[in-house]
Design goal:
- The protein folds into 2 domains: 132 residues, Carbamoyl-phosphate synthase small subunit, N-terminal domain (Glucose Oxidase, domain 1); 195 residues, Class I glutamine amidotransferase (GATase) domain (Rossmann fold), CATH 3.40.50.880.
- It is 23% helix and 30% strand.
- It contains 10 helices and 18 strands.
- Strand 16 and strand 17 form a beta hairpin.
- The longest helix has 13 residues.
Length: 348
Amino acid sequence: MTFEGTGFGEEHDVVCEVVFNSAMCGYTELLTDPSYAGQGVVMTYPLIGNYGVCYDDTESVRPWLSAFIVHRLSDVASNFRSDVYLDTFLKDNHIPGMEGIDTRALTRTLRESGTMRGMICYGDSPDREAMKRKILAYRQEPPVPQVSCREPAVYGDGPVRVSLVDYGCKNSIIRSLVSRGCAVKRFPHDAALEDLLSFSPDGVMLTNGPGDPKDCKKEIAELRRVYAHGIPTFAICLGHQLMALAQGCNTYKLKYGHRGINHPVKELQKNRVYITSQNHGYVVDEKTINPSVADISFISMNDGSIEGLSYKNGKIFSVQFHPEASPGPHDTGFLFDRFLSLMGGDRL
């Protein structure tokens, strides 16, 4: 299937995995979320860019997605906080964009046929056969080592100490911890248990990140050691999947993933529904959860998939969604307070 449109951002050919996001706002946070590494993101909301880009809202040092696809790019940024136009931001960071296509038709194709590879190609008469060959030959290298930090760094100086493993961490996770009185030391994705313990932490934070969790074999092996050590641990998104794999569960790829800021999840113990921000293509397989190891704590109200686990050792819990809510609702921010309580701290 071919869609013709107009380029913006930095115009260069790119092959990527094409996914869609249903959010009406929050494109700055989306663009800079490392979990989108290697993906071309289609926005279902028709007008994007109307409030520009504010650098204070970015979730990492730069955009990580491969391409940005919208129905209409706004040529006006009406927001007093705007630092730069969206088009300029993508040009500055060498990200290609495409506008003027029927994003509803493209989204329906992805929903009906599932996530697939695609290519943005610039020019009046591209060679379609050559494009098909490039798409079929495309393979993404495991992205976690690309997006993780290279060296440890410390944020905040509170009395509660957290060792954070960066699989593609969003800045808002660190801000959520620091604002609650935590001192956070950020470690690269391949940090050993001994590295994490060197900070004398009260707890461990496992962050979001991109790609297939089963590619992270070394990280999974290290999380078995973290689990055996018994230190309080809170895991989000990819971290949630990796901890589940470390405890013998399986994961599988969803047909088209969950990406947006209006996904309802139910907390089973309280029988309460929350609206959440989500960005994932893989989930934990319910049939492989050992009831002697973990209980299901949250489920998706859309498709019933696993959205959270609570481990029987009483020290570890994890969620598939994003409680830091950037972008998205703040319904589940209380989970950071729950983590603080588990570490013996008090909410400030």
